[in-house]
Amino acid sequence: MNKRLVLIIYRLLVAAVVLAAVVTQLTHSAGRIIGFSYVNFFSFFTIESNLFGAAMFIALAALLLQKRTSALADNLRGAATLFMVITGIIYSLLLTGVDVQASLPWCNAVLHYIFPVVILADWLIFPPAKKIRYGSSAYWLLYPVGYGLYSLVRGPLAQHWYPYPFLNTYQYGYVRVAMNMVVIGLGMGLLVMAFTWLTTLRQAAGPKRRK
To answer: Is 35 helix (H, G, I), strand (E, B) or coil?
Structure first.
């Protein structure tokens, strides 16, 4: 079995496990939480980032099957990797023990720990052929920023429901939440810079290893 086929199968299997974790947790939560809201469930950054990451793994497998490359796919893959790394870091630092509707242990492990590590390793071991520039990777931050704004606008309209405590303006007020968002935003910006720099190093090292 050649390496390309192994990589295709591996990415499809990872995507299947992630999707199974999301569906299982969704079914479990819907059957046990009184007044369960599907909109709330899919408003968690964890769920959205995992679905996006799984979709990218499926897309990458399809491109490999066709022996094609795509600059757009590379950028979307980079964004998906960043979102999953953010998911893992924020959960580990701020949300361990907080109810984020990931009550099943194996689902929680897949969505918050395993997939963030796997997708980052995938990016570093198999970096895109073309260089990812800082100007391009900066656009990856648009989604997290938009997500934060969406959560703030929707919160009051959803009976003060917020996906994460650090976004809860009803409990902490807009000033503190704004400060939280600024600190997290700066952290994300530094992460994008470090991520892009590290990716460039991996791309430069690739040809040397093959010589």
So the answer is: coil
Distance from C-alpha of 156 to C-alpha of 37, rounded to nearest angstrom: 15
Residues 6 or more apart whose CB falls under 8 angstroms from that of 51 comprise: 18, 19, 22
Domain span holding position 113 = 3-210
Q: Going by C-beta distance under 8 Å and a sequence separation of 6 or more, which residues neighbour residue 54?
A: 14, 15, 18, 19, 22
Number of domains in the chain: 1
Per-residue pLDDT of 75-134, as tens digits, reads 999 999 999 999 999 999 988 877 777 678 999 999 999 999 999 999 989 888 788 888
- How many angstroms separate the CA atoms of 60 and 56, rounded? 6
User: Tens digit of pLDDT for each residue in 45-76?
Assistant: 999 999 999 999 999 999 998 888 888 888 99
**Contact indicator for 156, 92 with CB cutoff of 8 Å:** no
What is d(CA 198, CA 90) in angstroms, rounded to the nearest whole number?
Answer: 20
Q: Residue 29 has which token pair? A: 């939560």
| CB contact at 8 A, 169 and 155 | yes
